[in-house]
Amino acid sequence: MMAALVEAALRSLALAVMVGFGLAALRVKNPQQEKIAWLVVLAGALAMPALQRWGLAPTIPVLSVPLPAVVLRDFSLGASSEPVAFGMYLYWAMTSVLLARLAVATARMWRIRNTAKPIDEAWTFGMDVRVTQRLSSPATFGSTILLPSSRNGWTEAKRTLIIQHESSHVRNRDSYLQWIAVFNICIFWFSPLSWWLRRRLAELAEHASDDAVLQGDVNTTDYADVLLEMARARQTTAIATGMATGSIEQRIDRILSVDQPRRPVSKLRYALAFVAVIPLVPLAADVTPKWGTPAADDTAGAALYGMDVRFPHIVSTPSSEDSKKWYPDEAKKQGIDGLVQITVTLDEAGRATDTLVLSESPVGLGFGAAASELAHVFKYENKTGHPASVTYRIKFELDRSDNRGTSSDNPAGG
Predict the structure, then answer these.
(1) What is the per-residue pLDDT across 116-135, written as a single tens digit (0 to 9) for each?
(2) Taking a C-beta distance cutoff of 8 angstroms, is the pair 20, 303 a contact?
(3) pLDDT for 379-399, tens place per residue?
(4) Which domains occur in the chain, in start order?
(5) pTM summary value
(6) Closest by Cα among 408, 411, 407 to 392
């Protein structure tokens, strides 16, 4: 599973790089258009594991075939999953912490929204606007605009600017999109792209809302003053969009710049931005070659050594006694390790009927013959309904650490 997640993160990074180059080449300056592009990247990142698992994402054909390596040592044979298990424990521990934080933040904002006092006045224009003492600056949670209790001291002009800004967040579903971006971090916390996407989407949401306010007859200096005032009392949260979030200095420089476009994006431009990026998702799925064979399911009967359960695969390994029995005596005396690549022919029931030693190193010490005998001790599964073959490598390795010996699963690419 961890290998699939890492691969999905790499494919998503490739997608982001292509989108970034495209935006730079086309000199896209409108925040709404850029946001559409990065939202497609976010959706592609979340969907990438499914694209890989269900075979919807193409893969690059390669000449060398990645093969699993089964390590045999002097006294025992097995699959030590301690490094893999530690990595999975670390992943799930971090993911659980982040999901718990997201759940707590969502519950906190939900309580604030539910305990806030609704406002039903003409200037709300029928929107869900509420006042709370638990926030010190305006924010949007879901489709609700939350105002601080200090709003009673605002002038009508100031209140209008704030409502226009927050209502833009509601129309653009920015709070929901931030929630999805944070959820993406919970799943791909090890990828810098997930953290960057959340931050960039938040910045673009603020730029788009600023533009929505400035499309009217608004003095840019007055609006900048309102932002500075809100920034002094701002509260940050991962899933609510606040008026004073993001880089205030950058936003003010942008607001005061006469070169920034203020026009709204037409539906046609929205569609073009969306259609232009969508084809890059399967393309990104093709530019990153797979590392080894696909990870096996965690269900009963799943393949060992990362072998794909959709094809003939190993389901159980020889016992410790078999390992001791078939390790070549001369090689053991001389303290020599060996590596054999072997193809095993299976019948319809998954029984080994024949073996072919493709290579052995070093030669002349009996590693090939030992691997052929051991191949009949392995248990296989063949769901193809006809005779098939499975190829893997057996590494004979003496345990020099102690007298008991250990073994490890060491998937390797060809």
Answers:
(1) 999 989 899 899 999 999 98
(2) no
(3) 888 887 778 888 888 888 776
(4) 2-287 (no CATH), 301-414 (3.30.2420.10)
(5) 0.63
(6) 411
